[in-house]
Amino acid sequence: MKVHVSVPATSANLGPGFDALGLAVSLYNEVEVREAAKTTVAVEGEGTGRLPAGDKNVVVRALRLVYDAVGRKADGWTVRCVNRIPPARGLGSSAAAWVGGLVAGNALLGSPLDRARILRLAARAEGHPDNVAAAVYGGLTVAGGEGESVVALSLPVPPSLVWVALIPDVTSSTAEARAVLPPKVPRADAVFNVQRVALLLASLQAGRVDTLAAALDDRLHQPYRRRLFPWMPSVISAARAAGALGCVLSGAGPSILAVAPGVAESEAVASAMEKALSRAGVGGSARVLAVDTQGAAVREQPS
Q1: pLDDT tens digits for 247-275?
Q2: Which of 107, 131, 155 corresponds to the end of one domain?
Q3: How far apart are CA 295 and CA 135, in angstroms?
Q4: Which of 61, 141, 173, 224 has the most CB atoms around it within 10 Å of its CB?
Q5: Which domain holds residue 32?
Q6: Among residues 129, 155, 181, which one ends one of the domains?
Q7: What is the pTM of this model?
Q8: Rounded to an integer, what distance in angstroms lies between the CA atom of residue 100 and that of residue 33?
């Protein structure tokens, strides 16, 4: 049997929701897996020639993780990855690989694990639950806890909102982006973010787009990460001037995620963001994306 898994890109944090919020969007990696006498990995698209093509590949590591979790062994797997999520851009490419491998392995084994268990395995492997929760469940997810206590909920997002991801040509590592964060923050900044997260979730639930600009503000990570992405303020200003309701750093960056009230506005926002990035001397492109509401999806195929 061969299984095919589709996993969405994800944007973590959404401004104030540091390590807690994630949003699944309509950009997908595909993973095809079947058991084999030895492990081989073919990578197409993003990361071709750069990602490991053997046992060190994250999809293969995830397959071993799920097999170990249920006490099963395999000689190897034939893996084909079709990657559309650019790596090291803050759009959850690592989370997609972990979740893709876990979901594929679980399907090959007859689906002994539910999504909650897959979430916990993925969060432990990834080191934090925000991206993997959105990749597993889809939609806007709120995740918390550590180890076996990780839990997540998927919430609806107003369908009228359109999301725009500006994807720079430059890359950034999560480790580097975390290294610039201080070990402690002022209480006032912590309170500020608690207020904004609550306001963000309430705004989306009530469909109040007029409060999104304030709700997406942050003091815990974006101010410190600006030193890595000095062009970020000008891109965000351009997005807002073009009609964006709000604009945030996507995950650890360098991608920027904006939200617009409609399709026409999203196209103007995308153009404005690209021009602002270009003026800063950095290449890149903007993608208009919908919210993925399904999360990782699997289908079985004949071998």
Answers
A1: 999 999 999 999 999 999 999 999 999 99
A2: 155
A3: 5
A4: 141
A5: 2-155
A6: 155
A7: 0.95
A8: 10
